[in-house]
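Researcher: For the record, we're logging two predictions in this thread. I'll number them. Prediction 1 follows.
Model: Prediction 1, sequence and structure:
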Amino acid sequence: MYTVIKELEISASHYLNLPYESKCANLHGHNWKVKIYCKARELSDYGMVEDFTHIKKCVMDVFDHQSINQVVPFNPTAENIAKYICDIIPTCYRVEVQESEGNLAIYEQEDI
């Protein structure tokens, strides 16, 4: 099994729709740290699990310097963002999204 890991930093804002009072319901920004894990049993014809540039483009084109609420159809929690990223990259099985120091959400597919 081959594995590649791509780390990115995204600057973006969001607000959360929550059923309780929270500062996070206000528009605010983060410098998100994202770690994307991809794997494959065999390499592609060009010798890769996934091109690092492709991974970066998939994520940055959607999120970087955006108001995330305006580009995704879900409540943009770190958990939901992690799953979304995992779903848009075919070889991805795990994504870590850190929105601030000490706050990390992980999504990992169960069956690969």
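Researcher: Logged. Prediction 2.
Model: Prediction 2, sequence and structure:
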Amino acid sequence: MPDVSWKWVITGAVAAVGAALGAMRVRRVLDNPIRRAEKELDKRDRTLREEHPDTVELRHRAHYLSETGDLAGAVDVSEQLLAERVRALGEDHPHVLTTRHNLANLRGRAGDAAGAAEAFERLALDMERVHGADFIYTALSRRAAVRWREEADGGSRSTE
């Protein structure tokens, strides 16, 4: 009989150690994504703090002017927004690249098809350098450059 009780004690101890190790592994696996998410949030918070508080207002104002048909005003405000974002975030930051895309599109809509084409051509090169040739927004920038180049050269403008 003593052999059976020792067997259960040893089995129970092994199970308890195994459960503890399993719990440690689960906690370690779960901690990594949480730590990564917290680091990403900290990085984003620092980035947003670097931007001037009026940056959000500029973005909303540019959108409002665009929606109300004041495309020249929207271009002016978007240029201010771009300058502020470049100063705070640097040339290659995703927010800067997005702002450049929106500004180039506004230029075209405001009647400067050649300026829009040039802006999209430069943006496509920068998108490829930063994100790669197969990145979706690299392809979209190239396509927009072709569209606005055709418009500038007298071709018909297609709707997106």
